[in-house]
Amino acid sequence: MENSHVCPKKVKDVSLQELRDSLQEFARARGWEQYHSPRNLLLALVGEVGELSEIFQWKGEVAKGLPDWTSDEKQHVEEELSDVFLYLLQLADVCGVDLGQAALTKIIKNAQKYPVNPATFN
Ligand SMILES: Nc1ccn([C@H]2C[C@H](O)[C@@H](COP(=O)(O)OP(=O)(O)OP(=O)(O)O)O2)c(=O)n1
């Protein structure tokens, strides 16, 4: 049975696998798997990136942590970031990519490509 209406306030160490399972159950329960093709999910992802961008649009530079934003604005950011993340996770899934492993591998590759320059901190 689906339990997506249960919204715990704070869950420690949410795993990507848990999120993927919830997303699969969400789509399955609604018969929406047929719509979740790679192309559709990519377009949905880009749409949500646009919605996230709209929140920042015309605000000028914004301080880290968004200290001057209202709680409504912060909640909006939280929701749009989540939409982006959840569509990205689903897109990776239908592309057969394990996003956690792929991201870890990419971080290692990035570190090899951009070695630390000790002089930077002297
Ligand atoms: N076919 C769908 C439709 C929605 N969702 C999920 C993923 C997103 O987390 C969220 C997106 O829902 P909406 O399209 O309603 O977008 P918003 O929540 O941003 O609403 P709005 O565009 O009205 O601000 O729902 C999904 O997985 N598959």
From TrEMBL:
Question: What molecular function terms (GO) are annotated for this protein?
Answer: dCTP diphosphatase activity; magnesium ion binding
EC number of the protein: 3.6.1.12
Q: What class of enzyme is it?
A: hydrolase
The entry's function note states: Hydrolyzes deoxynucleoside triphosphates (dNTPs) to the corresponding nucleoside monophosphates. Has a strong preference for dCTP and its analogs including 5-iodo-dCTP and 5-methyl-dCTP for which it may even have a higher efficiency. May protect DNA or RNA against the incorporation of these genotoxic nucleotide analogs through their catabolism.
* Catalysed reactions, semicolon-separated: dCTP + H2O = dCMP + diphosphate + H(+)
Could you describe the subunit structure of this protein? Homotetramer.
Q: What is its main location?
A: cytoplasm
Q: Name one GO biological process term.
A: DNA protection
The reply on keyword Cytoplasm is yes
User: Per its UniProt entry, which superkingdom is the organism in?
Assistant: Eukaryota
Q: Know the name of this protein?
A: dCTP pyrophosphatase 1
Q: Localized where?
A: Cytoplasm, Cytosol
Query: What Pfam families does UniProt report for this protein, alphabetically?
Result: MazG-like
List GO terms (cellular component aspect). cytosol
Q: State the InterPro entries in the record.
A: DCTPP
- Keywords from the named record: Cytoplasm, Hydrolase, Magnesium, Metal-binding
Cofactor(s) named in the record: Mg(2+)
| Cited SUPFAM superfamilies | all-alpha NTP pyrophosphatases (SSF101386)
Coiled-coil annotated spans: none
